[in-house]
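All the exercises in this workshop are built on plain-text protein records. A record pairs a protein's sequence with a compact description of its fold. Backbone structure tokens are a discrete shorthand for how the chain folds in space. Once this layout is familiar, the rest of the handout is easier to follow. As an example, a complete record with its sequence and its structure tokens follows.
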Amino acid sequence: MKHESQPIPFDPQPFYKKIAALNNIDVADIKNSELGIIHLAQQKARNTTGWQKDLTMRAVAPLVDKYVGGSTSKREVMEKIQQFGHLTEIILDTHTMFTSYGTYIPGFHFSLVEQREKTPHNNHTSLLIGAMTQEGIEEYAKTVKTIHPDASCSVIDIEGVTTAAIDKKTAKFVYGSGVAIPFADNTFMSIHTNYLWPSLLNNSIDKEETFRQMLSEVHRVLAPNGVMLAAEPLGIFSVDELRDQITNYPFQFRKGNMMPPMKFISKRDMVAYPTFPKRAIAGRDEVFLMLQK
């Protein structure tokens, strides 16, 4: 079952400002540019015959160079392209093409609720492995702190330019790898990944060994009753191979733990979180029932 997303109150101005900051462009120029024109055309179309969301993103794609700009750092360019994609999808309310942590907030949210109900605790400690944008880190911290207001959030990445500058009140950024996590044993009650595995494994010579190292490190730094929450694409391993890899470690692994993750249909709904409109979530009821088994 899919719940159709309905219009929600939305102010695009903060997101225009963030796009303008990517390449030091005046925000008024952004609103009067091709992006602003597309946005206005979209609003008019919605009042008549509807809007083809996928066509919108194809129209925006050529604008990346103008809004992102050049940089001597390949990583910084990659981060800004990802950020531009996220912000544009929010402004234009398109189908999600640039996935981020926020896309899968419903799955992370309900898994954290399940953990809290089974093992109530204070001073929740949490780690996000890998992040391409500050927005992704903010989405992660907002989710964890919605369930655990007193939570301490950290993020690690082997690189990071804009992400390394994240406000320490949001999360503590530390340079580090998922196969050599720079924290002590039994530190975290939750460890999160979101599309980490492709970048981690596709560049490795021995995928199985790299995955084994990551699982070993995650298990080492997880506290008793801690959980690993991963929204990752299959294809690197088959389901059976993945299950075999995971069960080689003393993780508690149940049937309901491997499933298509709940996700927001629209980035607009992600912005509205934690209001959490039921209509905004794909597969919420069915997957929530699976989580309870």
Observations:
- Residues 74-92 form the longest helix (19 residues).
